[in-house]
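Exercise 7. Given the components listed, write out the predicted structure of the assembled complex. Treat all entries as one system.
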Amino acid sequence: MKIFEKFGRYYEDFEVGDSIIHARTKTISESDNNYFCLLSMNHHPVHLDMAYASKTQHGRFLVVGPLIIGLTVGISSQEISGKAIKDLGFDFMKHTGPVFVGDTIRVESMILDKYSSETETNAGIVVIESRTYNQDNQEVLFLKRKVMIPKRIDLNLLQESGC
Amino acid sequence: MPEFGRYYEDFEVGQIIKHSASKTILESDNNLFCLLTMDHNPLHLDKEYARHYPYNGLIVVGTLVFSIVVGFSVADISGKAIANLDYEDVKHIKPVFIGDTLRAETEILEKRESKSKNDRGIVHVMTRAYNQNNEMVLSLRRHVLIPKKTV
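Answer.
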């Protein structure tokens, strides 16, 4: 038997109320934080300057926030946005706890709502809440987002219409 | 010590700050960013797959656009921030393609002193990002906790 690995889901595959525990996890290495800051031109010294960071509240580097947001979206792409055709954005995001170099994060998502798109005939909007936790199960990020997901194309219908 | 960012007193409600940083989004930016953040949506990574979609090419991953726009605004907005409290209404208004050049500006919407500590305040801002054709590609609002110059 050939098994085709799945990446992303179609609109029909989302059930409101479903909770998804994402399989992929990531230890945030010093290099992740460093490259991310440089790539995104975020030069706040709390992320890049060890002498400065050592004098702050936490006494060490704080991992740059958009990296946690990027990883949360990235880790959830396998089950959430892997087939998305448009990322509509975030309604709300909050860093609910600090992340330090060496911390390991995991992500859980919940499907809050879904509805057909008014502009695209073969797609729908899915509303998702994602929460990110560190190795001590402390929540570090909460976000609510909307993505546009294609519907399954019904091949029978296509043949009937002569396409 | 060198100074980076602004104090609470330096923000004026209604002020619009045009950030000096701008950036052409290169193929390597999008590629490295997707890999670094484990976002493997083929619309960002697979040219053959992306060819079958309306834009006929790779779309720059949205979290990169968001991160770079926040990056542009750090020196002027959150360079001294004690905390980034939250983000609201982050909207991807238009797609960004490889080769597009982005810039951003931030409007100071409101500011208020912290209720619990007298050495800081909360600044509420709206940041808008544009491409080389002056089309808005992203907008977001955020609250940042900023220290005062003097207590």
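Discussion: The helical segments of chain A are 30-39, 45-48, 50-54, 65-81, 155-160. The beta strands of chain A are 19-21, 26-27, 86-95, 104-116, 123-133, 139-150.
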